[in-house]
Amino acid sequence: MNIFAPSPIKRVVFFLLSDSLLIVASLWIAYLFRFGFVIPQEMHEGFIKALILVLPLKIMALYSVNIYRVAWRFMSIYEAVKILKALFISMTIFSLVFFFIMEEGFPRSVVFIDFFISVVFIGGMRFSKRLWMERKKKNFTNKTIIIGANEKASSIVKSFLNGDIEYYPVAILSENNRMVGTLLSNIKVHDLAEIDKIIKHEGIQSVIVAKRYEPKALNELFEKLKDLGVKDIKIVKLLGNKEDGLKDISIEDLLARKPKDLDSAIIKAFIKNKTVLITGAGGSIGSELAKLSAEFGAKKLILVDNSEYNLYQITESLSALPVNIESILQSVVDKAKMALIFDQFRPHVVLHAAAYKHVPLVEKNVQQAILNNVVGTKNCIDVSIEYNVEKFVLISTDKAVRPTNVMGATKRICEIYAMNVDSKMTEIAAVRFGNVLGSSGSVIPKFQQLIAQNRPLCVTHPDITRYFMLIPEACQLVLQAAAIAKGGELFVLDMGRPVKIVDLARKMLKLYDKEDLGIEFTGLRPGEKLFEELLIDEHDMQTKYSSIFVTGSRHYDKALLDVQLQELLHSENPLEVLKVIVPEFNHKAN
């Protein structure tokens, strides 16, 4: 056992002993100052009497303000005020006793001299240790600048002083002219325009962004910092316990397009106190829909997935939320068992996210894709109608627009069935959107894996583009569209401008300081498009939300469709049947 290891008891004992010595020294020095550094013999008795009273008075006063519970590293102006207050109270009591009871033989001016010396000694002892600790930290921590003069910046400085982060802030930068030149947590605020000079002068390698930026502005700042040689860029995030923390700037932060018309109120009114069944609940989209449904007050969540691991993951992640969860390991292909689930739980809302979505895999497993995507969706829609579900929402994709691959064609058939079935009491809607940032199997995790392996990033074509949106925002817009649906709508989310995948690859290489890895072009994969389409044009109707449109969907004879779906299931050449149902299907197999 290390007897020198710090502990609360050892800290209290140490400060009691050191303060006692400082109090004795303070009173003695006060006498020395009063008598020109030669204390008369007749004053010695008065010194002893004063010390007998002043020592316990000061110790008790300091103890009463909890100063002995404060560790070195947490000393601040607040603690300095407490020390001042304690010493002032003890001085007042000391003065009353000596002036009115033991006045004779005691110089009154010593009281005031002793007060100021005590403040310097007791406060100085504590703060000198903290200053020494901070100076020591500067030798092994990363010098950094903070962008944004706000409470978050102040919190980051305090985190450094408390030893919680290894970043030593040397300057704070702000665009607010009123803040420039001021001190924030004792760090000077400079004009953001001076960033080049400060980074070069201080040799800055790390930057913390404490100000909220829109993705476009954040991207511009990122490029500037990288051009200035900054390797480590952190942004402040708000953690669940309301404390500020740091995270690496991510590609999602730089590319995210955050809709400005997210309406939490209408979603809450739609979801609150409802039983919500989610298929594909363990996938990227399904799991986010489950989390949002829980946050917006769903009474019960029925989580359906045919992947044990994915179902386990989403169930665990929701376990702390105040919502009743039923996790069911089940494939949507088995209609009879799906009907049993509906019969037992009677969901009000069904969010159908179950689908095989990976284009190359689906191209090699056409029959399984048809079974899971088409039959699974038909089963869920039919059972929802049978059990009078209030609202059924089909999650669709931009790949269903003039599809060039089997996955897109199967999703287009799902849309056709959803829009043409006799829905009776059930309101059925479909929501179509593009790629979401960071979803399982998507390009970003793939690039991250290649970077971790120090391998070049593989891009199929220099001109290939894709739409991107953050998963939480896309899923919230799905629920928002569902909330305003009346039945029979095919909603399309405005995904903004498409992103060139090669630009995304370059950005990620720069983000990870791996530009030397380079990019390899591998050629388009079977069924892959150069450009995805969302079909937002002048003929589409905008809803009351600028991010949500309603597009047209052609009428299809339901009886004919049922016959063709049977042919699709049993045909030896399912691709030809797909082309009959979806005439615009232009299969690009090579």
What does this 3D model show about the protein?
The chain is elongated. It is of the alpha/beta class. About 1% of the residues have low confidence. A nine-stranded mixed beta sheet has the order 10-9-8-11-12-13-18-22-21, sandwiched between helices. Strands 3-4-2-1-5-6-7 form a seven-stranded mixed beta sheet, sandwiched between helices. The protein is built from 20 helices and 22 strands. The protein has three domains: 129 residues, no CATH class; 109 residues, NAD(P)-binding Rossmann-like Domain (Rossmann fold, 3-Layer(aba) Sandwich); 260 residues, Rossmann fold. Helix 10 crosses helix 17 and helix 19 runs antiparallel to helix 20.
Short description:
The chain is built from 20 helices and 22 strands. With 590 residues, the protein is of the alpha/beta class. The chain has three domains: 8-136, no CATH class; 141-249, 3-Layer(aba) Sandwich (Rossmann fold), CATH 3.40.50.720; 264-439 and 468-502 and 533-581, Rossmann fold (3-Layer(aba) Sandwich).
